[in-house]
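Schema walk-through. Below, the input block comes first and the output block second. Nothing else is stored per chain. Lengths vary across the set, and this one has 985 residues.
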Amino acid sequence: MGWLCLLFLLFTTCQFNSTCSSSSNSSSSLSSGHLCHPHDSFALLQFKNSFSIDTTSERELYNGTTLYSNSTITWQKGKDCCTWSGVTCEKMTGHVIGLNLQFGGLQGNIHSNSSLFSLGHLKRLDLSENDFRGSPIWSKFGGFVSMTHLDLFDSNFSGPIPSEISHLSNLVSLNLSYSFVRLDTLNFNRIVQNLTNLKELQLYGVDMSSVVPNSFKNLSSSLTTLGLFNCHLQGKFPESIFHRPNLRLVDLSYNYNLTGSLPNSNWSSPIGTLMLSQTRISVDWHRLTRNFKSLRALYLSNCSFVGSYLAFVGNLTQIMELDLSYNSFGGQIPWSLFLNLESLVYLGLSGNNYVGQFPEVDSNSTSISSLYDFSTQQLVGPIPRHLTHLYLYGNQLNGTIPSWLGSLPSLEALDLGSNQLSGNIIDFQSRSLKSLYLDDNKLHGLIPRSIFELDNLQNLYLSSNNLSGTVEFEKFSKLQSLYVLYLSSNHLSLRFNHLSNNSWPQLSTLALSSCNISEFPYFLRASPNLDTLNLSYNRIQGEVPKWLWDVAKDSLHYLDLSHNFLKGTARHLRWKNLEYLDLRTNSLQGELPIPSPSTFFFSMSNNQLTGEMPPTICSLTRLEILDLSHNKLSGKIHQCIGNFSQSLSVLDLRNNKFNGVIPGTFSKGNVLRNLDLNGNQLEGLLPPTLLTCRELEVLDLGNNKIQGTFPNWLESLPKLQVLILRSNKFYGEIGIPETKFPFQKLRIMDLSYNRFSGLLPTKYFEHLTAMTNSQEHELKYMGEGYYQDTVEVTIKGFEIEMVKIQTFFTTIDFSNNTFSGEISKVIGKLKLLKGLNFSHNELTGTIPSSFGDMCNLEWLDLSSNRLFGDIPEQLVNLTSLEKFNVSKNRLVGPIPHGKQFDTFENDSYSGNVGLCGIPLAKTCGPHQSPPSSFQQDGDLEHENGFDWKVVLMGYASGVVIGISVGYLVFSNRTPDWLVKVVGIK
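--- output ---
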């Protein structure tokens, strides 16, 4: 009987394969126990050969083992495919029923005629974590009628999910997560209706924005896992989902517009993992703790809470993972509630408003290892020795780090970053620690020796503290698992004296900004996986060594060598995938180097580059920030720069020697936000395509040779805040607005040193709403993020480069033109104006008394005009006024006295023979008594919080201390001043 079966199997095999020329070979194969079906073997080899295989990459799994992308390497013709890695066969027929190519290194497209689809007996297919280059999920995937498990996770598929997936009626598990695919309501309803055996549905990151949430009501009752993370779902999610009898995991997080609430009835859900972070689903803690008694993991970051949560935390006694971050919870952390959750291993409270200190060990307690809150004099619970992850980032915690945190035996991740912790860093004794975040605090002292002994440490963040001392980098030699190291912005001095044989093979990120480094770390030559390198704000001198240009050529994405003393050229940029390159503020010479086409941030400002822009700059089509300012570059600006406008946000070429015309290639829909061409030799007319730059906030074209009349058409740009046309060849009258709301957001307007004439543009002044009404309630700077906007303006006679522009800084400078006529009283409505300069024109009439209403005014220059009449006594109300100049006019009468007017010197009034009173030698007659001030002499405080008593009343002392102290503030992370004096006007 056995022989008959064997002959039958041999016969059917030969019938299937028409080229079965050797029955003896087949018989031999079967008799030895090899069951691979020849058709399937051929199909698998053909499938493998349609791809390139990346054998270099590896991935560490959660259990610490390393997975290499070599699944198909062992596949060879002539070998039994049932023995191949990732292949499972059916014992009797030899057909392939399982194919697991997870992280197989496959790179290439899957085509509709792929041999994969001929494997008709497949029951399990795992193609996750490969790169199929945007291939569609073909309808033929629906032809695997026996399929029970389909996993296409993170394999770079794209396009719509076909309706044929719903034909896989035997599916138990479906994972289409993290590809660029989308799913509409119609096809989702088909999947829901036909896949009645489905237990696991994972669609993380799938675009389901058009799917109606009510569609989920029809999901299989056998469902255990529902993963809908970041699916762009919107609308009200049905409460009935939470009643599913077998549901164990629900992840709806990061669907920002998903609403709904938890069920209100009494019932018991089997859900063990519930993730609602970053949704608008209402969370009622009373309902939650009453109905979800099986919860083991609860993630509620940035949620919509109803009522207080504190009273019910204690009811979640079985909870193991709890994330309540970014919910604006305040007050003291209720340690007694959290630490009494005996199973808790993960606690996330980051991004709240918690204050106070950590509890400390109570040495007098009768219980073992208990914590005591000395501020409340209460016992808060035992030391949480079971904790593995504690995240308290971004609160307002103060005091010192308690020693008990360093002795938690199971601790793997501790994040105390961005708080107000002080004192020394404690000793960490737990060898399980993998991630330690202490950055952005007020910690001081030395880095403790114990940190250098944490041989499992992967991520170490100590940046932006007050740590001090000299650190020999060799001390990190035991940390061979080190992946990320941040030591920037402390008072450390790093030395690399004994590192000839040391290397950190896993190192991906190294941030050593402001660490008093004087040389390039030579150990970097053996860092093939380096992704991020920041050595900015150090003391590195000389040329960049040749070996550095070859470091991590394939992996480096971020490089910052700015603010050093580098010399020589930087022509050989060999990094293939570089995205961020910052070499500013060095002494680099030669031609402009061009990084890889993948670069989106490129800054070479403040160097000594010469020559023209190479045409290869046109390859940088992903550029968002291009800053080549303060060099000696010449020639024309390539027209292709305008073609970058679909991505280009900042183009800063100021203070070079560029000539020719401004590119006119800006296209509709561009995102250009800052265009700064100040200080070049550009000429011609402004290109009308600037009108397409609807995102433009800063337009600085000063100090060029640009011609033409005033560009009224710029008034319609809805976001324009800075307009600088100074020192060009503009001419003629400005005229009246052409739109209903011209320059509605303009805050800095500088038209000085041109040939404008005619009357002052009163109609424009009437509509400068950003100088009239403030909507800013906190200190902000323009361009915060990757790039900080910079502008040169004249403040109190000094030409100032503002390295940061405060969003409430406002000024108008029309000086050195030939404007005529009177000054309108409407200017007095610009109550937020800080500086006004109409000097060196041909203005007549009187000084409007309404100027006394500009309560924020800090400098006023009306000198060298033909103004007559007296100085309005209302100007004494300007208690912030520090620079006042009305010299070389025809003013008469007594000078007001009191408050700021008692600080101005003679040169503020020279050339007005009709003026009298202090500080002039000419006294006033009996009928010319000086007007008194309106307010108390002690009232010197600026309305928005600046106290000008601090600046010694400006020019009264003869020293220019009053260059707007309000703007001279240290940046938190960089040592630059916000402004620097360029010259005196």
